[in-house]
Amino acid sequence: MKDDSTNAPAAVNPATAVKPRRFLPRIGSPTYHVMLTCVAIFILGPLGGISAAFMNFSIGFFVGGQVLAGILGSTVTLPYGPDGKHGANYMQTMAASVAGMGAMAPLVQAMVWMGMPVPPAWELILYFLCIGMFGVGVGMLYTPILVDRLRLTYPSGLAVANILRALTDRDLLRKSIAKLGGSSLAGYVGGLATTKIAALGATGLSLSTLGGGLIVGARVAIPALVVALIGLWQTPHLIERHWLGPNDHYRKIGFVISLGGILGAAALDLAIISVQTVRRLWWQRGVVTPPAEDWKRVNMLRLVLWVAGWGTGTVWLGSRLLHQPVFFLTVAVGLCFIFVLTNGIALGISDFNPISSAFVMSVFILAALGLRDPGIGLLCASVLAIATSEGGDMQQDRSTGWRLGTNRIIQFRYQVIGIAAGAVLAVGLAKLFMSAYPVLTQDQFANPNLRGAEKWQSAYTFKIVGALRGITKDQPEVMSALRLGIALGLLIETSRKLVKSRTRYKHFSGNSRFGKAIDFLLDAVFLPSPYAYAFGGFVEFRSVLWWGIGGVSASLLETFRGRLSPRRQGLGGTDLPEDMSTNSLVGGGFIAGDALAALTNRPVRHASERAMNSSATLGDCAILRIIPHP
């Protein structure tokens, strides 16, 4: 059990703390909640949702935006002083829900790639809404176990709690906003420049990819570059073995190997986590649980009815509106109770929510039960993708609220409002991005050298469509690649844990420069985490290169700052979470700015692209189905 008190930030300087102003609404009043809701729904949520959708449309993963929303939301609650932390937490909770739903926009893109008739927008919104409401309910069911009893760390939840407590300091908040604002502007200008300046665009520069590398650092970014280089090196051999066609890019089979690596590592991690969870519960047997404080109390009967109602609604809407089999929908809803728990535990310990793994595993389970239609697999497995995303986010937000003492019922209400807004945003962003960038509607499996795909890697869609097609086509090379990936993931992750758990290695790697260098090489090159190296198989080489440049730059800047100061310090001279480091703030700003640039700039199409899109392609027809008709 972890003592949270050791993670609290330094005390706020009374000289820089602020007092509430008379004209602001009273904390807890209806006007107060209306103010917070408006800021979260109309500003913070859409910003996070646009960034999340943009990242999934391009590099295949997304940053939830809790930190960004927490910092920006603190500008609203700053005049309330330390008591404003709960209001900022409510706003970041709502904004994160909007962002998490917005990130599901590529599910619509997957329908287009597979040639499915895309349902009307209102049907998709209702379906996504039901799943999201069901997911947060299931996540809330597990909160008393994972957050209150096991007290899992939830690193991002801890970081947000520390940030909200620290940002009652006016100087600290001002410096944070300056870094976010400046980097967002740079990301916006850079994003526009890559579409306007041909020479710059030819380099494959993506400010969002560079920003992502800045956030994760060299130990995560370099492994992806190593795998991408190995993929280029092995491409001729893979073509000889007929795993690739003559003109195929490595990622057409590399994504399967990478996905297998994640599945192998996740299987090992979840097995270890399950054993640890059972041990914790065993050690805590017989411990008398004191009555919950008022802010923790939840009406369990209403919560169970909530879960049952939205779960039933998901099955009913999926069968009546989307014409999916009740059996497979029911199985998908049932699987959520398993994966929301396991993913929540993984998120609580490692800060990693394996959403794609839950999606792919559910596809395999449904296939074992007789599923052969990839379209049915997509709509049914989407239940797992949305529910695990929102359920994990629910638990992470509850961990933040647990550290701050935030009222859970009110926080739950903010989250479900965010789900409703996010469902609308997800479908709207799918329409907006795909209509502005028709390359997103083109199946990258059928068109491996598609013009414009350098920026729009569609790695998330690439993964889920590839998995779905695997259940209907006889592709022995795909299953061989998957088995290879799972074996590599298990082998590498097992080796990492055996090496890094040794006391002598911990002493060696932590007490000498040579030991630290060896530890870095182990993480970056020789035994990289499968979660880190998988990125190299999901996207095109130039994107991985910019990802690596961002990661190396982040580590070099950290080293440089560390030499200037014997102890790395945050923005205002106080020790702060890694999420508030300069690298994280600048990286997050780059992502947000690049996303806004993509939305506000419709690129001029080349003649060849105009010719390609002049025909009534399947993708264009599908887009017309989700654009509301006048």
Description:
- The radius of gyration is 24 Å and the shape is globular.
- Helix 3 (85-102) packs parallel to helix 16 (408-436) and helix 10 runs antiparallel to helix 23.
- 72% of the residues lie in helices and 0% in strands.
- The protein has 26 helices and no strands.
- It is an all-alpha fold and 630 residues long.
- The longest helix is centred in the middle third of the chain and has 33 residues, at 251-283.
List keywords for this structure.
0% strand, globular, disordered N terminus, mainly alpha, disordered C terminus, 630 residues, 26 helices
The value of Rg in angstroms is: 24 Å
Run of helices and strands? HHHHHHHHHHHHHHHHHHHHHHHHHH
Q: Work out the helicity level.
A: over 70%
Number of helices: 26
What are the low-pLDDT stretches, counting only 5+ consecutive residues below 50?
1-19, 566-574, 604-630
Total E-strand runs: 0
Tell me, what's the shape?
globular
How far apart are the first and last residues' alpha carbons, in Å?
58 Å
Whole-number mean pLDDT:
80
Largest sheet features: none
Beta fraction: under 5%
- Give the structural class: mainly alpha
Give a nutshell description of this structure.
With 630 residues, the protein is mostly helical.
What topology emerges from the helices and strands here?
Blueprint: H1 30-58, H2 66-77, H3 85-102, H4 106-113, H5 121-149, H6 155-166, H7 170-196, H8 198-202, H9 207-216, H10 218-240, H11 251-283, H12 300-320, H13 326-350, H14 355-368, H15 374-404, H16 408-436, H17 459-469, H18 476-500, H19 503-510, H20 513-526, H21 530-533, H22 535-538, H23 541-564, H24 582-600, H25 607-614, H26 618-626
Helix pairs in contact: 1-2, 1-3, 1-16, 1-24, 2-3, 2-6, 2-7, 3-6, 3-15, 3-16, 4-17, 5-12, 5-13, 5-15, 5-16, 6-15, 7-24, 9-23, 9-24, 10-20, 10-23, 11-13, 11-18, 12-13, 13-14, 13-15, 14-15, 14-17, 15-16, 15-17, 19-20
